[in-house]
Design goal:
The protein is an alpha+beta fold and about 280 residues long. It is built from eleven helices and nine strands.
Length: about 280
């Protein structure tokens, strides 16, 4: 069994460099005959399914599967779906100190099952587009995107492992996930998939343990964060809207007024007056 916390520590702390990223589409029933791997890398399956045999161990991969291999491994693969296989491959270099340590977590083959997470696919596309950006800032951006991908994948994998345990633990993790990601687009389907449940099942357990539906909780939490920003700074409403996950300031203002009874600008003006009578607040 994969130690998710240890693997997270490896990619958070150890020395490595993202080298290349490819998106590949393979025709149905294609066979990749036995070869020896040359690099450290991940395969992120986004469409179709395939079977990989690495050093005698067989892995069945489908959308949401993430497979890792290290250099010097014997591998062969075959597309097992009737449709095309689509995946992203991400290759990286590991510092020599770690690559020569046979017990290091990266010197192994393993599979992670995070489920299909739309945000991961978006991040993979962004990583592919940014991987060849030159200079230190380009490398920093690539690593930032890779770490975001790995965080989503590891959280998804951990949640699926916990799905057989108490639903309370799963919902507590879901609440924590929303609080970490409230500024990003979130849907019921995505939240349910990440936490290894159907949308109906996830919504039932979430309401059971929190008293509100998942998307209502997302909206409430966003509004609370927005109210904090309106109280502590003289920020334009459109900037606050984007900061809490709303690209449309008008939609944000309607949601805010529904939650607090007044528009964001009125709320900010009232908060401002309480602190310093006569102050002014930006409306846009």
């Amino acid at each position: 069994m994969i130690n998710v916390e240890r693997l997270a520590e490896v990619f958070a702390n150890d020395s490595y460099e993202i080298q290349s990223v490819y998106r590949l589409v393979i025709q149905p029933k294609s066979l990749l005959r036995e070869f020896r791997t040359l690099k450290y890398g991940f395969l992120f399956i986004t469409r179709g399914s395939n079977q990989i045999n690495v050093n005698g161990t067989v892995y069945e991969l489908q959308p949401g599967s993430v497979f890792h291999a290290a250099p010097g491994m014997q591998m062969e693969a075959q597309v097992t779906s009737e449709a095309e296989l689509e995946y992203y491959s991400v290759y990286y270099n590991l510092d020599k100190y770690y690559s020569e340590n046979s017990h290091h977590e990266c010197n192994a083959h393993f599979r992670l099952e995070s489920g299909v997470i739309p945000r991961v696919i978006e991040l993979l596309l962004m990583l592919q587009q940014n991987i060849h950006t030159p200079g230190g800032l380009g490398k920093l951006r690539a690593k930032e995107l890779f770490l975001s991908i790995m965080h989503q994948v590891l959280v998804g994998h951990k949640n699926r492992e916990l799905s057989g345990s108490t639903d309370i633990a799963a919902i507590e993790e879901a609440v924590a996930y929303i609080k970490r990601n409230y500024m990003n687009p979130l849907t019921l389907e995505e939240l349910a998939e990440i936490h290894a449940m159907s949308p109906k099942q996830f919504s039932y357990f979430f309401h059971k343990h929190t008293g509100v539906r998942p998307i209502d909780f997302v909206i409430q939490y966003r509004m609370e964060r927005a109210s904090e920003l309106l109280r502590v700074g003289n920020f334009p409403i459109r900037d606050i809207a984007v900061s809490v996950g709303y690209a449309n300031p008008l939609y944000f203002s309607r949601a805010f007024k529904k939650r607090f009874g007044v528009s964001p600008s009125v709320y900010a003006r009232q908060a401002c007056i309480q602190v310093s009578p006569g102050c002014e607040q930006k409306d846009s």
